[in-house]
Amino acid sequence: MDEYKLAKKCVRKLKKYGLSIATAESLTGGMIAERIVSIPGASLVYEEGFVTYSSFSKVKNLLVDPVIIAENGVASYPVAREMAKGILYVSKTDYALATTGVAGPKSDDYNTKVGTVFISCASRKRVIVRKYHFRGNRDKIRLKATIAAFKLLLYVLKNDL
């Protein structure tokens, strides 16, 4: 299933239950938001999205603790978790998706392997973070992360509803 079909399925499910979502993207650079808003009726469920590519932006817009970033690096489980919690808090939505990782072509300052991706989905009930290792070039890694984010959202929705 491609990312547009997954996005459509997510939007349909959110609409059905009158739920809202926001996104906080680093690695995917707005790709998730673009796929969501390409679906007719997305305005009924999609509140907002931030592309927080820099550490400063994660701190300023998502309220991520700079100490967490300094201790773990931006491509980490704790940062993904805080990004999702932050956008959920800031946007006041029912759900939030966040992505961070290393798309390459080189590792980050923490020597995180290219293709390492953390995706987090937060709801009022839980925050789930998943770690992935994707292969491919920069664009393929970002696309795979987008697809994985929609799959994670569907998983969380299934378990919440």
Quaternary structure type? single chain
Radius of gyration, rounded? 14 Å
Q: Whole-Å distance between the termini?
A: 22 Å
**pLDDT averaged residue by residue:** 96
Structural class: alpha/beta
Description:
- The chain has 161 residues and is an alpha/beta fold.
- The protein has helices at 3-16, 31-37, 55-62, 66-72, 77-91, 138-160, and strands spanning 21-25, 46-51, 95-101, 116-123, 127-133.
- The protein has a five-stranded mixed sheet, sandwiched between helices.
- A hairpin with a 3-residue loop joins strand 4 and strand 5 (127-133).
Topology:
Blueprint: H1 3-16, E1 21-25, H2 31-37, E2 46-51, H3 55-62, H4 66-72, H5 77-91, E3 95-101, E4 116-123, E5 127-133, H6 138-160
Helix pairs in contact: 1-6
Outline:
The chain has six helices and five strands. With 161 residues, the protein is α/β, with parallel strands linked by helices.
Features:
161 residues, alpha/beta, 5-stranded mixed β-sheet, 6 helices, globular
